[in-house]
Each structure stands twice: as structure tokens, then as C-alpha cells.
Amino acid sequence: MATRDSGGGQQHTNRREDEADEVQAESTDASDLKERHEKLSEDVDSLLDEIDDVLEENAEEFVKGYVQKGGE
Amino acid sequence: MGIETEYGVSVPGQPNTNQMLASSLVVNSYANRTSAPGSRARWDFEEESPLRDARGFELPREPAVDPSAPANEDDLGLANVILTNGARLYVDHAHPEFSAPEVTNPRDAVLWDKAGERVMAEAARRALTVPGTRPVHLYKNNTDNKGVSYGCHENYLMARSTPFGEIVRHLTPFFVSRQVMCGAGRVGLGVDSREAGFQISQRADFFEVEVGLETTLKRPIINTRDEPHADPEKYRRLHVIIGDANMSEVATYLKAGTTSLVLAMIEDGWFSVDLSVDGPVAALRAVSHDPSLKHLVSLRDGRRMTAVQLQMEYYEQARKYVENRFGADVDPQTADVLARWESVLGRLEVDPMSCARELDWVAKLSILEGYRGRDGLAWDSPRLELVDLQYHDVRPEKGLYNRLVERGRFERILGEDEVTRAITEPPEDTRAFFRGRCLALYPQQVAAASWDSVIFDIGRDSLQRVPTLEPLRGTKAHVGELLERCATAADLVDALAGR
């Protein structure tokens, strides 16, 4: 049992390193990531406009008034 | 399995609202308009309260406040009903709660949990038609950011023979880390948001101990409450109190699906590794407080890894387990849970924001970061706290999660037509089918019901109690035809008694 455990652990360590390499390789492809983030932020801008329309008015008072009693 | 959710309740402009009254109004509004007059079946506390053991079946014919029921359950005239989908809708402490019917798989857990949101939205709409009432808002979240938390509990039926120590050992690290998928996101750090900031989980800051029975004080990561509502010799109920209430269907699906897999492995004695972490309560918070997902958790075996990597360890165990036990015969849903689990973890590791269409905390954070960028808001801005709160509003036109879905910005697992059916129809493969269908077919004759019984009043000397102790009996396959054949509850009772 102990042998099997430590064997598994060893394999895992190797695999982690491989994964770390992959992660690095992927994040060096910075232009791709930047592009994705730009598209995401465009999306977010139009999303915020939509949300502005439905957000409750007077945020400060609204969240201050949200007081609950314990449950469970 | 099944999910019970307490909803936050508020009447804007009236901060001093009696929340028990408001909750009761909501529940009663739904119950009164849904069922025929005078037909509201009451909850049967028989199996739930030791006070009731000697009571027998001499129930009052008219539903009434029962003085021997636990005090917190009969507040304000028993706002406590059973729905035709097999769910229980009631007031728990000062919150309306939807306890979803028992289901056999994670997808159905998502379906009836979502139906619960629709029930709550409809209940609040109906409450509005009561003259003189102000709008009641309901939120499927877990904290008011002022020190109070309320729960979304998962329940899993397990074999009684599973050693509890094994459950604690293997489930604790899993619960410390699963929030990276199932966190609902929260603005504010500390139970009363003492510090400004964003964290992954609504609940993490409210947990103080590793194991215990409490749910309202000194909350434990592993809760030991064990009323199986079934044969206690055979089953235990694992009552999971650590989860956030999720809006996201994918998050709820992964929460129920991955937890079920881990529990199956524990029951089966599969784990050959011990992933115990040092100081799990502190680790739970540290993981929640780091949305960059870089925090390293220390394992007892000396290794240090992120919560995502810790989840990956569980995923690997589960993948091997399923391969070993089922091979090519694996059912499609289990295969799907594994595939989504791996996919989400892989993407969280590389770029968490790539999960913004699937996970609540990521979606919420991306909105919040948007506001911070556009309007230059600091983390203590009330507007950001409002976004956090309103994300969970159950109204389709106001809830931010619901707006995201409406605009196709959120991935769904369910179709809205099946959600609509689940508002009134029970799951077909558990005892919830019998409970729900009896309520639908014989509303005037069901005097009371609970998880493990349905009690009929068919005008005989005593009430007729039909026990439903076995969760996998009373399914459509078992009783569907019988129920179709019985025009009245008396016919049904006679048929069950073999008369």
C-alpha cells in the first residue's frame, strides 16, 4: 500500500511539472490572451449598460436596508 | 439527494419589517392560490420531533397551529406546505425555504432547485396582490454582509455502514477546495464585511470548526446532523451545510455531481491517498479570499498546492474510480460530470475569467471588475455591494443572473419548459413521486405529509398513514399505474391495504 502511494505521488509530481510547462507555454502566447481579454472587455461594457438599467436606485440606502435574521 | 435553500427576504423602504411575517406572507400567498380552498395539507412532524412520538394519528381535521410542534416551525400559523412537485415550502426561522424533492442524480437536483427559484418568484408576485402589502424581495444568496448567514444545504443519502471518520477525512479537503467551482462570489471580507474586497464564497467566513452538529453557531465544515428520514439502520443522511446557494446551473450541477462522486468513492473505500490539509478552517477562508486562485494550501503530507490542483487530485481519483468500476458502461451523466469537472478546472488554472459563462463567482467578479474599471469604484462602494446582492434577485426582470441568462451570456443545462413542469410535477424515480401525485390527485384527502409519510383523511374513524421510508419506492414505476386506477384516496388506501 505504502509503495503504491508513494509511486502515485511520484507520477503526480512529474505530471504537475509537465502541466506547469504547458501553462507557461500557453501564457507566453500573450497576443492571443490579450485579444481574448479585449473581446471580453467589449462584452463587459455592453453588459454594464444593460445592468445600469435594472440596478435598484440609491445603492447605499438599498444595501444598508438589507438586514437579515439568522437561519438554518 | 436533495437541496434545501433559505432565501433572503426584504421589504425595501421598511428595514424594520418582521421577516417572519414577510416570509409567512410569501409562503401563504403561494399555498393559498395554488391549492383548492381548505385543502392545504400540513407538514407531518411525526418523524422529526421526539415531542410528537406519542401523538398517534389523532390529528385535528382542520389544519391548525399545533402546540406541540417545535416553536420555530409553527410561527405565524404554520406557513408550511407540501407542493405537488413533492417539495416542502415553509418558513424556517425568518426565511422562506424551498426544500426540493428527493432526486437520484445531479441534473435533477439542478432542475428542482431551479424550479424552487421560480416558485419563490411567483410567491412574491402573488404576495403583492394582497391588499396593503409592499413588494417583498427574495434573494437566493447566503449573507446580508452584516454578520448574518443563512444556508443552502445539500443532503446525500449514504450507507449507514460507511465509517464517519472516512467521510470527514476525505470530504474536508474536498469542501475546502470545491468553492473554486461552486462559490457564488461575495463583496466584503469577514462575516460583517469589515474589510473591503472580493471573495469566492458567500459562506467561507462563517465557518469556525471542522466537525460538529451546529448549523447556526460555530458552523462546522462537516455537519453531523443525521436524520435520514428513512430506515436509520440502513441509511445516514449527510447534511452538507458549507455550500453557497448557486444561481448557475453548471455550478449546482458540479456541486451535486462531484460531491456525489466523492461520496461514492468514500462508501466504496476507494481512496488510496489522504489529501488532508493543515488547518482546514483557515485554509477554507484563505482559498475564498484569493480569487486569483494562487493561494497554496498545505497538505499534511507536506505538499503544497492550489485549491484548483487539489480539486484536480480528486478529479483524477474519480476518473480512475469510474473507469475501474464502470469502464465503457459508465452512464452518460457521470461521464458528463467528469468531463465538465476536468474542463472547468483546466480553464480555472489558466484563466479563471474563461469560466464567466458557467460559474457564479467568476460571472459576478467580471461584472464587478467592469464597474471598477468603468466608474473607478473601490471595493467598499455600495454600488458594488448592490451588484453582489441583486445578482441573486429571483425576479426575471431584476435579477442580474437572470438578465445574463436572458441575454445568452450564461450557459444553461436545463430547458425552461422542463423547469416550468418541475414547478408542479415531482421527480418520477423517488418517493417524491408518490407524495407529489397524491397531493395533486387527492388534495382534499391528504391531511398531512412529510418526507417519509403521507397521511390521508378519508372520513374513517382514524387517519390513514402511508409510510414512505424507502426513498426509492413510491416511484412512477411502482405506483404510477395504481394512482391512475384509484379515483379517490379511499380507493388508494384500500388498494395499498390489500382490501
From TrEMBL, chain A:
Describe which pathway this protein belongs to, using the record's wording. Protein degradation; proteasomal Pup-dependent pathway
Write out the biased-composition intervals (Basic and acidic residues).
Answer: 31-41
Segments crossing the lipid bilayer:
none
Q: Which UniProt keywords apply?
A: Isopeptide bond, Ubl conjugation pathway
Quote the Pfam families the UniProt record gives. Pup
Domain of life of the organism encoding this protein: Bacteria
Segments for region (ARC ATPase binding): 29-66
In residue numbers, the region (Disordered) covers 1-41
Instruction: Locate the cross-link: Isoglutamyl lysine isopeptide (Glu-Lys) (interchain with K-? in acceptor proteins).
Output: E72
What GO biological process terms does the UniProt entry carry, in alphabetical order? modification-dependent protein catabolic process; proteasomal protein catabolic process; protein pupylation
Acetylation is among the record's keywords: no
Q: Give the range the annotation lists for the signal sequence.
A: none
Question: GO: which molecular function terms?
Answer: proteasome binding; protein tag activity
Ranges annotated as biased composition (Gly residues): 1-10
Please give the subunit comment from the record: Strongly interacts with the proteasome-associated ATPase ARC through a hydrophobic interface; the interacting region of Pup lies in its C-terminal half. There is one Pup binding site per ARC hexamer ring.
Recorded hits in NCBIfam families, A to Z, give: pupylate_cterm (TIGR03687)
What does the record's free text say on domains? The N-terminal unstructured half of Pup provides a signal required to initiate unfolding and degradation by the proteasome but is not needed for pupylation, while the C-terminal helical half of Pup interacts with ARC to target proteins to the proteasome.
State the function annotated in the UniProt record: Protein modifier that is covalently attached to lysine residues of substrate proteins, thereby targeting them for proteasomal degradation. The tagging system is termed pupylation.
Record's family? Belongs to the prokaryotic ubiquitin-like protein family.
Instruction: From the Swiss-Prot or TrEMBL record, give the protein name.
Output: Prokaryotic ubiquitin-like protein Pup
Gene symbol of the encoding locus: pup
